[in-house]
Amino acid sequence: MAGGLVEAKGAPVQAEAGAARRILPAGVHRVVADQTIDGDLQLQPGAVLDIAAGATLRVLGEFAAPVARVFTGGGRVDLNQSRTPHAHPEWWGAAPGNGAVDSLPALAACLAAHPVLHLLAADYFLSDTWVIERPFVRVSGAGFRGTVAGAGTRLVMTNGTADVLRVGPARRPRMVNDYPQNIVVTGIALCRSAPVAGNPANPPAGMRAQFLLFARFEEISAAEHGIGFVARGLVRSQMSNCVAFRSIPGTQRGAPWRGFFLDGTQAIGLAGGNASLFLTDCNATIGGDPALGDNVGLLLEGAFADSFITNFETAGPATGIRVDGQTAEIGGRARDGHVNLHLHMPVIDQCGAIGIDIRDTSPQALIDISDPYVAAAPSAQAAIQCVAQRGAISIQGGQLVGGTNSRSGGHAAGLLARDSAGVQVNGLKILEHVAPVVLDRCQGFAVQAWVGASRDMRAPAASLRQCGRGSVALLLGYGRPAYSAGVELDTESRRIRIDASGLDDAALLGGADSRVRIGNRPAAQARTADIVIEGA
Q1: Pick from 257, 397, 450, 465: CA 20 to 30 A from residue 146's CA?
Q2: Cβ count near 45 (within 10 Å)
Q3: CB-based contacts of 528: which residues, under 8 Å, 6+ apart?
Q4: Quick one: pLDDT at residue 527?
């Protein structure tokens, strides 16, 4: 090394013939002042570089060393402009598999020294949150969803109150273009060795990603946290094949849980709390008996604009997907913050309360749901629910399966809408629900759906109460009597169009007289002002 700034204890530095490569043998080699190495630097097993406080060792060629501790001292290492393909935190003292060693300082030092960090298939124990704020970096593990050491890469938080990983700054930068950008994290399991503790209103997360531009998170699992993943202020960013899981109780029974939380409660200077956030092939699952209170697989809260959710799957959470517009809380932001939400092909299996729950949206809300699948558990109340949905929502296609619920004595609705407007349904298939379609105080709706049941449900296929300016067209039939009526309206409903041509009399307990009932009477015997019935 030029300049004589390295003091070696052991054999002298050797140079390969004809190559600008320096080889350090076993022993301690001290760097006492700033030094730049233009060529390659190779450390043989047992070699250690002890860098004095205030000194920086900069390598511009390739740095090669065993995956073990090779850097000591209070100085810095800079491999950022080197030809080294990636760095290992073990070089700074990370101790995979050793729960007695805090690997957090080594992880931080490694990422400061090189933009690409590789983790082994092992457990790295952390005493506090690992923060990644540096732009243009990539952190890669050896696989996610591991449950034992060596099964992929696991970051293990050793306390119950801290987030495992925070990606992004603690405070929002002034301009979106000032957000850290091009951060990629892949192939890691975020775990916790202590039960979730602390304030249930602000529980610890597996990953908290915030104020980022062009970020990508792929194949990351988050197990046993208060929240699996938090997304706030993510712009043109992606989460792909990420998994949230909970099976162990926290210190406070009955605490809430969210698999994924898309936080739109804070203004970021854009329409939504995130902007062009793509959530693809992600999953939230509950197993065992974690003693949770309100638990939701995916929660979008506040300004949810510009969110694109594809193939999101849940198994076990009480509510699969909840969209809570919080119109009063976010005020004028609701006008532009409640548009451009797309839920494509969600799979909600065995929801214990609500499959997809849409609530409290503004008159400007625009929501598209396409090809949903919802299977209702015995305790479920509804497969799809809209409450105070004031804008426009469309449900295109999809399957709502209620056999598990109805066979166990449940009374789940397939589609339940209350105090809502602009509900548009086309091609929805509703099977074995006691109450397939329930509309209560709804305005400006259009529902076209197929309803089937193979046994006596003793309820109308569609029930309307105090509704106006809407239309209902059902295809009803399953070869045997099942429902008490095709469409049942109260006498307070007005300006309703019913297409009864798709109602099979054989599927109605009362036959043809039960196709449409108004005020508990066949439509032909009831006053039908403002009620238009076709195909009766």
Answers
A1: 257
A2: 10
A3: 518
A4: 66
Element housing 449 (H / E): strand 443-452
In the β-sheet with 21-24, what is the strand arrangement from edge to edge?
Answer: 14-15, 21-24, 40-43, 63-64
**Range with the lowest mean pLDDT among 150-154, 161-165, 322-326?**
150-154
Q: Hey, what amino acid is at 165?
A: L
Rounded to whole angstroms, the Cα distance separating 209 from 41 reads 36
In the three-class reduction of DSSP (H, G, I as helix; E, B as strand; rest coil), residue 86 is classed as coil
Residue in this structure with the two tokens 């309803």, named with its chain if needed: 451
Q: Are 445 and 422 in contact (CB under 8 A)?
A: yes
CA dist., res. 133 & res. 172, Å (int): 12
Tell the burial category of 38 from Cβ atoms under 10 Å away from its Cβ (0-12, 13-18, 19+): exposed
pLDDT digits (tens, 9 = 90+) for 257-269: 999 999 999 999 9
Distance between CA 80 and CA 68 in Å, rounded?
20
Q: What is the pTM of this model?
A: 0.95
Q: What pLDDT does 11 receive? A: 36
Check residues 472 and 18 and name the one with the higher pLDDT. Answer: 472
Pairing of strands 165-167, 205-213: parallel
**What's the gap between Cα 216 and its chain centre?**
13
Tokens, residue 203: 């529980």
Output Rg (C-alpha) for the chain, integer angstroms. Answer: 30
If you count them, how many residues does the chain have?
536
List CB contacts of 170: < 8 A, sequence separation 6 or more.
Answer: none
What is the dihedral sign for C-alpha 290, 293, 298, 300? Answer: negative
Using alpha carbons, list the distances in angstroms from residue 274 to 76, 391, 396: 36, 20, 25
Place of tokens 């250690």: 48
Predicted pLDDT at 6: 53
Max CA pair span of the chain: 106
What is the residue-averaged pLDDT of the chain?
94
**Displacement of CA 346 from its chain's centroid (Å):** 12
* Residue recorded with tokens 């490569």: 21
Sequence-separated (6 or more) residues with CB below 8 Å from residue 395:
369, 370, 372, 384, 415, 423, 424, 425, 426, 428
Neighbours of 440 (CB within 10 A): 16
Residue whose token pair is 């002034």: 174
